[in-house]
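Sample intake — Xanthine/uracil permeases, putative
Collected from: Streptococcus sanguinis
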Amino acid sequence: MSQDVKYDVHDMPKPGLLLGLSFQHLFAMFGATVLVPILVGIDPAVALFSSGLGTLAHLTVTKYKIPAYMGSSFAYIAAMQMLMKTDGIGAVAQGAITGGLVYFIVALIVKFAGNAWIDKVLPPVVVGPIIMVIGLSLAGTAVSDVMNKTVANGEKVYDLTYFIIGMVTLLAVILFNIYGKKIVGIIPVLLGLIVGYIFSLILGIVTGQEIVSFAKVGEASWFHLPPMSLPFLDYDVKFYPSAILTMAPIAFVTMTEHFGHVMVLNSLTGKDFFKDPGLDKTLTGDGLAQIIAGLFGAPPVTSYGENIGVMALNKIYSVYVIAGAAVLAIVMSFVGKVSALLQSIPSPVLGGISIALFGVIASSGLKILIEAQTNFDNKKNLLIASVILVSGIGGLTLQLSGLQISGVALSTILGIALYLVLPEPKD
């Protein structure tokens, strides 16, 4: 274990610290997890509930050996929006369940075929740039949250006040991380969020601009039952072949992201989760989490880079912290006022935090290349890394009859293909 690791995978912090660290992970995943259902037309409380339950399921399947948080997947948004307009939540649920079954099938193949192929198709020259893409492909969203304000007609316009809030939040995270001692240095993201939130309140009062709105907090009840669709309780279940054909193939796209996230965790923790608990277990955990989401009428879930970013930043990899965040997510889904308060966090605050988190993920990829002493005078290595970075960060997209493969997924496929096809240059 690296000397700078503060809590390893099976280390349990003291109760008070555990709660604070778990809240930090809750905040890290919250924005993206609730954004997906909002874009699709599903109540975000359901997504919060299923993300927590799915995470606990993933932890159980992987025998509490891998610290991964499950949040709403962005890969399915276009498919879900289309299905919601045509067939409704029942079709989305059926598609999500089918995607989970695809994970199960692949996990079964891996169990019997082994995973030795991983080292052959995913060498450092492929893995490093893929991890960099995972972080940098999210950069546009983080920067947009810092700079742009959404006006009445839905248009985003540049706002200097938002920019200032985002930079103050980012600076707070950096300062807490570098100069913080003891507990302060362990929860820099949570403290940065608090600083950004309070600064937003003060700046709003000074400028007369409503940056933080408590309207929904006042309207919300203390107890709020997430409006779950529970399509599995509908005895008149309709079969949606279009949902299956649309969403099932996307599972292969999220799998490539899953491989990338596991690679990052391997790099951070110094462990090999492909071997223990095994890739078949991590895939099964992801698949079960997706099925749970489908059963409750929530968006499909996937492992979250945001939470990996938190771990990279604070060097705390405890599965108990991740489990705590999952329990908090479930509890919060039933507490109306707390859920509304979380949704009141201004986007520039979330953006400022995201700049740090996504950047740390990208730097982890660079670290892999450096530690492997990758030779970029080798033309094969140079071309593979170049193609992965530009196609992934640029958002290169392949569309085939409703199936869309883009960003991380497509750049991963291209990188693996090039590594297997291109010959080694002769001396």
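Post-analysis note: The chain has a mean pLDDT of 83.
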